[in-house]
Each structure stands twice: as C-alpha cells, then as structure tokens.
Amino acid sequence: MRIFRHAALAVLLALPAAADAAPRVVTSFAPLHSILAGVMDGIGAPEMLVKAGASPHTYAMRPSEARLLEEAQLVFWIGPDYETFLRRPLASLAGRARAVSMASLPGLTKLPARSGGAWEVDDHGHGHKHAANATDSHMFLDPRNMMLLAQAAANELARLDPGNADRYAANATKTVAGLEALDRELAATLRPLAGRPFVVFHDAYQYLEARYGLSPAGSITISPERRPGAQRIQRIRERIRRVQAACVFAEPQFEPSLVRTVVEATDARTGTLDYVGVGVPPGPDAYASVMRGLAASLSACLARP
C-alpha cells in the first residue's frame, strides 16, 4: 500500500500544473484570444468577452462577463478607440488587473484612419473627418502585428508567473513561427488579386489591404453603428459602376440585405468577409483560420472573370 501511495504521488507530481493555477487572463475578442491561447498553451487558457458572431463595435457586456473582468489579472484589448464598450468597465471593474492595449505596443505597424471620398461621406455629401491623428484600430489584420502581441503576451505572463516563463517564451516562439508561415501563405494567395477593385461593408480591412497589395474602392457604411441613408447608397452604387468594382462584401454579423440593395443595377458580385470568426472554434488556430477565410473569400469573388 505504501508503495502504491508513493507511485501515485509521483504520477501527480509529474502532471502539468492545473489550468486554474495559471494567471487569470481575459481577452476582448477572437483574434486576440487566439494568440493568447497559443502563448498559454499547456499552462492555462484565456477567457474571451465577445463571442464569435458578435461585433466588438456594438457589443454590450453581460453580468457574467463583468465578473470575468473583476477576477482578471491581465486583460488584453486593442484599445479605447476600438472596444469602446470596455472603456468604463476596465476603469471600474478591472482595477486590480493590468490592461494591455495592443495599440500601445512598441514597434506596431499603425495606419491612419481613412476619411473622405468613398470612405466617409454622409447623407448630405460632406466628408466625415476622424479626430486629428486618429489611427485605424483594425491592426490585428496584419500578422506582423500579431507577432508583436505574442511576444508581449509572453513577457506579461512571465511577470505574473515566473515559474512558467520558459514555457511562455517557447510558446510565443512557436506562435510567431506559425504567423510567419501564415504571412507567406496569405501573400501567395492574395498577390494575384492586386488591381481588382472591391467594396467592403465597413472600413475594417486597411491593414490586410496594405500588407498584401489589394485594391479597395470604398465602404458601404461610415461606421457599423450607422445604417447608411438612401443618398449614400446611391453614391456607393455609382462608385461601383465608375471604378468597375468586381465585388461587394458583406459581414456575417450585420444585415446582408443592405449589400444586396447596394449592388442592384451594377455588375458587382457579392461575397462575405468574416474577420470576427463566426463558426471558428476558439483556440490557438483560430486566428489563422480567420485570416485564411478572408483570403479565400476575397479570392473566390475577385478571381472570377
């Protein structure tokens, strides 16, 4: 019996640390959650506030999600200009947690928010201007930026959990290597689409477009929270015809009938771009799946004659 107890103890000591012993980490939505899941692989698992299918632009937290923030030690988000629903909760509920803003990471590629012309015209024909020096917050759609997030996550986790610092570092190295391979794959898929104009539902894809040489021609909405009026729809329709846009892309979390209305009396085809990962299982592979899905959707619509 004593030998059995000693053997059982040895087995228990050899097992990995329980997930609940890892730092309590909360992420805002799927792309960030995927990177953190990769860095924490085998040690713990991050929580995610905005579930797949919902938009970070229009999200309202539930009490159970507020409790996640109250219990968090680390919170990863893009920043106050993107997940606006988190501004007040982070200030009032997550006082004990360290909030890490991806937008503030050193070395990050940042692009200015676009305004004017096809990107922002209100129903009276006036350009809608962003605040001075505003940055486009969809920076997670450049895999190189996500490499920086993985490295920053490993550093932050190591501070809280130094006993697992080497494992976080190794996971980050593996995650970055996967993102480098993904970057090469996306470049090969999207390179043939250069010069083929398209219109998106809202201006979320500038980082993807800039990284891989795509040719956007405008967006249907000024912002996801504002439904465009009849005059704007007519102007976008005229632009589609003028630039001969091949495709107009919807998003699964917003009303698809609007896109069908926009393409009436044009030769443009329709497709769907899903950057929030509807139907993609959460985990370390989710970000790559979302990015491959975007590339596949663009290619399926734009590559057709």
Task: Walk me through the topology.
Layout: H1 2-14, E1 25-27, H2 30-39, E2 47-48, H3 63-71, E3 74-77, H4 87-92, E4 98-101, H5 143-160, H6 165-190, E5 198-200, H7 206-212, E6 216-219, H8 230-243, E7 247-250, H9 257-262, E8 269-272, H10 286-302
Parallel strand pairs: 1-2, 1-3, 3-4, 5-6, 5-7, 7-8
Helix pairs in contact: 2-5, 5-6, 6-10
Describe this entry's structure for a reader.
The protein is α/β, with parallel strands linked by helices. It has two domains: 2-106 and 136-186, Rossmann fold (3-Layer(aba) Sandwich), CATH 3.40.50; 189-302, Rossmann fold. It is 41% helix and 9% strand. A four-stranded parallel sheet has the order 2-1-3-4, covered by helices on one side. α2 packs across α5, α5 (143-160) runs antiparallel to α6 and α6 packs parallel to α10.
Query: If helices are DSSP runs of H or I spanning 4 or more residues, what is the number of helices?
Result: 10
- Percent of residues in helices comes to 40-55%
CATH homologous superfamily heading of the largest domain: Nitrogenase molybdenum iron protein domain
Distance between the termini: 76 Å
Write down the domain tally.
Answer: 2
